[in-house]
Write a structure and sequence with these properties.
Layout: E1 4-7, E2 10-13, E3 18-24, E4 34-39, E5 46-51, E6 57-59, E7 67-72, E8 77-82, E9 91-97, E10 100-101, E11 105-110
Parallel strand pairs: 2-11
Antiparallel strand pairs: 1-3, 3-8, 4-5, 4-9, 5-6, 7-8, 9-10, 9-11
Amino acid sequence: QVQLVESGGGLVQAGESLTLSCVASGPNFSADDVAWFRQVAGKERENVAYLWSSGMTLYANRVLGRFTISRDNAKNTVSLQMNNLEPEDTAVYYCKVGDFWGQGTQVTVSS
């Protein structure tokens, strides 16, 4: 069983930045694919950024060029750097490591 602890959400104004972090327990973090998803109430959860264990990344079109996913295998941490935030980025953000999900952290961007 892998446990994920997320942090870094909050309330910011449009144009500002936030960094989300997710620390994973368990011995196999470096071999796991990792990702960030987000969900708005009443809508489906959508993939924001994906980072394969090979190092390849994939971003949703709406965040391409603004968000960066990264990992620190020594610290079992996956991060999401979010720049130039927009009100449309408001959502609960979830990290995913392998088949396990974090509890979610709220990001609210005011206009």
